[in-house]
């Protein structure tokens, strides 16, 4: 076998080794980049989950403030009705005036319960958004882990293929 053939074969093996190492590094870099992007998405989902929790707490607070305001307005209304009955010469705590005030109080209690139910439903929906965002964040993290695993597999495959090619070239050189 001539020196030129050995040099050409050695150059081919060196190029194959370089190509193998380059593919290996590229596969790992690609996997790291994908994992980084997915981690970023996971952090955004976590932030969105926290924002949904804050909106749920705020919604509950606003609802309770609204109910307190409604209760105060209803109390003023009932006092006004009682005052009008008394000004007309009726006793506000007996008979029809009392029944009217009891009916008003019952309607007001029903309204407060309806408002609380609506607020609870809205709060639950917002908290559910938070749960969904957290699950989405977990999914992104899992995808990132799978991307790293896939990158490692591609890197190992590139190494094996490179070694096979180098072995084939060396075998062909030995037979020449």
Q: What is shown here, in short?
A:
This protein has 176 residues and is mainly alpha-helical.
Q: Give the helix/strand class.
A: mainly alpha
Total DSSP helices: 2
Largest sheet: none
What is the strand content?
under 5%
Mean pLDDT across the residues is 84
Order of helices and strands: HH
Total strand count, please?
0
Computed CA radius of gyration, to the nearest angstrom:
38 Å
- Which outline best applies? rod-shaped
Low-confidence stretches: none
**Helix percentage:** over 70%
Structure description:
- By secondary structure, the protein is mainly α.
- 94% of the residues lie in helices and 0% in strands.
- It has helices spanning 3-87, 95-175.
- α1 runs antiparallel to α2.
- The radius of gyration is 38 Å and the shape is rod-shaped.
- It starts with a helix and ends with a helix.
Helix and strand arrangement:
Layout: H1 3-87, H2 95-175
Helix pairs in contact: 1-2
Descriptive labels:
176 residues; mainly alpha; 2 helices
């Amino acid at each position: 076998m001539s020196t030129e053939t050995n040099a050409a074969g050695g150059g081919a093996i060196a190029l194959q080794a370089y190509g193998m190492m380059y593919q290996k590094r590229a596969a790992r870099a690609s996997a790291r980049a994908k994992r980084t992007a997915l981690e970023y998405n996971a952090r955004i989902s976590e932030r969105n989950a926290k924002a949904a929790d804050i909106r749920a707490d705020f919604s509950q607070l606003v609802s309770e403030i609204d109910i307190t305001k409604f209760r105060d307005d209803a109390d003023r209304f009932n006092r006004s009705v009682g005052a009008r009955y008394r000004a007309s010469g009726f006793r506000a705590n007996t008979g029809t005036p009392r029944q009217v005030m009891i009916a008003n109080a019952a309607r007001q209690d029903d309204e407060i319960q309806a408002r609380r139910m609506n607020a609870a439903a809205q709060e639950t929906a917002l908290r559910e958004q938070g749960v969904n965002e957290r699950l989405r964040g977990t999914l992104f993290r899992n995808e990132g882990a799978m991307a790293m695993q896939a990158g490692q597999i591609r890197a190992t495959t590139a190494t094996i293929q490179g070694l096979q090619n180098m072995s084939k070239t060396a075998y062909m050189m030995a037979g020449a």
